[in-house]
């Protein structure tokens, strides 16, 4: 080659730089840039999260500002009456923590948000004030069955309360509408669904009249976290409640919930236009609950044998609940356990109300050892001696888990909350929740709780609810505190992550999408030969450990789920996650504190 035809090309060692070489060089540089961008993006995400957290914390400090008023006294003008009614009408000897404060504040006309664990006794905080007040208390609640339970209880105590929902017959509707506008009506509480309020002009009109007549004492909004999209159970109908404050100025609002991170509380306050309201929060720790996670066998009959063993031995003669995800699971498990001579009942939303009541009663009276139920069973359960709650499948979020497991041990005596965990259940749930704003995020927190092999379970729950606990507070009331795992060093799982990526690349080349199972198969040198890779080693550890690695990579953004709709269902496939370029860097480490077996 002569110098004349290569004016702008410097040739070294007589070797020609081909286009391919240059493309490769550019590709290399582009990849480096991608890495840099990824790193910057991660930094940006981290900083944004940190900033938001600091902002929330600052807001939270205001939210939980110590009130200048002492609400915990019996010097209010209603104190005597309150005490008398508590004993004579409700037959309760003494109040529980925060009940007095809440009632005093709400009766003084303050807006209050009360955060108290399930079973803590939130309802009394509006029921008792309703009975001692002259006017009417409106209780907004999301579920008819929940309201029915409360009405049932109140009627037994001879408290006048009625309910408005799409199911209420004309006669009762009329009675309620009238009670709102006549002087000296004996009706104390009206329970109503948010949908009904939003739809019924007639009701809103009567409420306005009652307001003008000064008969509208207060609003109590149960499950108030449903107002917020950040909550785990957002309900669009709750949006309507945003008009209450401006429509009925001066009528205090009491919001009640069992689960509410700062972000949700702030959001709820904004939505209800009660910014700066008093927020009362009961401690979350339930010292008498023993928390445990067990690996759920993949094999169905082994799983059944495990549950049989639990019910016949460890929980023999004790009362409990087994939660399943689907109606079908509940039915199958019930009939299988029955065939093993275990007395259990099935409970889910598709059963007739009368049948459900029967099941509930048989359980309450001890004829059934356990109820096998979907989460439709729960709200309004009033059985103090539930000794165990078993999750046959993980919950959708820590909030759900806390609430469901919280039905155990309301009598204060020891009870067990046991989760049966396996990775494939995560993918069953993810297809149900991925369309919610924070559905996957919530689910992965639950996965993290199950995968953690060293931390105190109680501390993990507390941290989730923004509380601090030390292992001393647990007092060996969780599996890890009772029997600590001897894991010395975290293991770097980045190499495994790269193997997984290689399997994924091969699958993409052959136009195949990988479910978690197929991916695991290929990695462990099983299943379809076309998906396997001879160049990566078959793991020496168990498949269970492999699944844990997969879970850890998913939680931490090295893998992500990719949802596709088939004719009958949604399928979750796995692909590289947002942090993949980090993992491709040989120097990058992904530590995992796990017992590799
Ligand atoms: P929450 O709504 O907070 O989950 P509930 O209001 O349904 O809880 O109350 C749970 C149970 O505790 C009910 O049976 C209720 O009668 C009972 N309860 C509430 N307050 C007290 C109290 N001070 N003493 C004894 N029992 C109470
Ligand atoms: Mg309640
Ligand atoms: Zn512990």
Describe this structure as you would to a colleague.
The structure is a single chain. This protein is an alpha/beta fold and about 600 residues long. It has four domains: about 5-55; about 80-280, Rossmann fold (3-Layer(aba) Sandwich), CATH 3.40.50; about 290-450, Rossmann fold, CATH 3.40.50; about 490-590, Arc Repressor Mutant, subunit A. It contains 23 helices and 17 strands. A seven-stranded parallel sheet has the order 3-4-2-5-6-1-7, sandwiched between helices. Helix 15 (about 425-435) packs antiparallel against helix 16 (about 440-450). The protein is globular. Residues about 1-5 have low confidence and may be disordered. Adenosine-5'-diphosphate binds near residues 92, 95 and 382. The site of zinc ion (ZN) has 8 residues, from helix 17, helix 18 and helix 19.
Keywords:
six-stranded parallel sheet; seven-stranded parallel sheet; binds zinc ion; disordered N terminus; binds magnesium ion; alpha/beta; Rossmann fold; 597 residues; binds adenosine-5'-diphosphate; single chain; 17 strands
Q: How much β-strand is present in the residues?
A: 5-15%
How far apart the termini lie comes to: 62 Å
Which ligands, by name, code or SMILES, are bound? Answer: adenosine-5'-diphosphate, magnesium ion, zinc ion
What class would the helix/strand composition place it in?
alpha/beta
Sheet with most strands: strand arrangement: 3-4-2-5-6-1-7
Poorly predicted runs are 1-7
| Basic shape | globular
User: Per CATH, which architecture of the largest domain?
Assistant: 3-Layer(aba) Sandwich
Q: What is the helical fraction, as a range of percent?
A: 40-55%
Question: Using only CA atoms, what is the Rg?
Answer: 29 Å
CATH class of the largest domain: Alpha Beta
How many runs of DSSP E, i.e. beta strands? 17
Summarize model confidence as the mean pLDDT: 91
How many distinct folded domains? 4
